[in-house]
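Today's session is about reading a structure prediction critically. Students often jump straight to the picture, but the first step is always the sequence itself: look for stretches that repeat, for charged clusters, for runs of hydrophobic residues. Only then move on to the predicted structure, which in these notes is written as discrete structure tokens rather than atom positions. Here is the chain we will use throughout the hour.
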Amino acid sequence: MNILDFIARPLGQFLFFIYNTIAFHNYGFAIIIFTILVKLILMPLTIKQYHSTAKMQTIQPQIQEVQKRYKDDKEKLNQELAKVYQENKVNPAGGCLPLLVQMPILLSLYRVITGPLKFMLNINSQQISQLASKMHGVNKNAGSIQINIINYFSKHKSELSSMNNVLKPNKLLNMNFLGLHLGNKPSYHFADLFGINSANYLPLLIIPILAVVTTFISTKLAMSQTAKRNDNVKNQNSLQNTMMYISPLITLMFSFQLPAGIALYWIVSNTFQIVLQLYISKFVLNNKWLLNMKK
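Below is the predicted structure for this chain, in token form.
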């Protein structure tokens, strides 16, 4: 069993609960609601990340002075840096905590979306293999086998009657969202976009496009907020400009390698982050609340 299954199973059941209730059997809305709830739960950690980052930037002159003074004495340098952090009540690793928490959630969500039969419907591996063996004229090695099973039996529901109720027709997940199949991977190949399957792949391009745009805006906002507190750090603008374009490029690359549901998660997550960043920039940083907030 993959170690991420311990996270994926409760996430899958939670996502399935949302799908069956407040999302009204709409898979896309289920992912959107799920993502917003996760971000709300993680919001205190995110606020703390901004707080830690802001505090780190205010003590940069002290850090640079210590680094300059003890550049030839590494042991003394580490001691003095620790003293600066302690006196200012700053944890240099504090800004990484939300990222460390969200990474296993994202990886587990990928397992849930590529393996909905296992994590949402609680169908075991033997039953999944049994279902796969009944598919005809399907490349079982293309994409997620569980997504392929859902796609196949959604079109051939009558064949499920001979499967001893392994998968009931009314349990088949509807993975369509506003005409987009969130279990499919977007494609940039000409044959897919303008060939016989163009109706499936061409509209799906909106997913990676929105993922890249929201990633760029979110990164730009984060970098601009850092720059306001980082005027004395050399080469900072160059680093920021690099990150501002690398992050969307990474998002673009993965958007064409993963199911569209993952990219939808990114879009919603980025949008939530953009709103939060604008709120913090206008109502928190301007009021210096972060700098004065007590731990």
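Discussion point for the tutorial: Strands lie at 176-177, 180-181.
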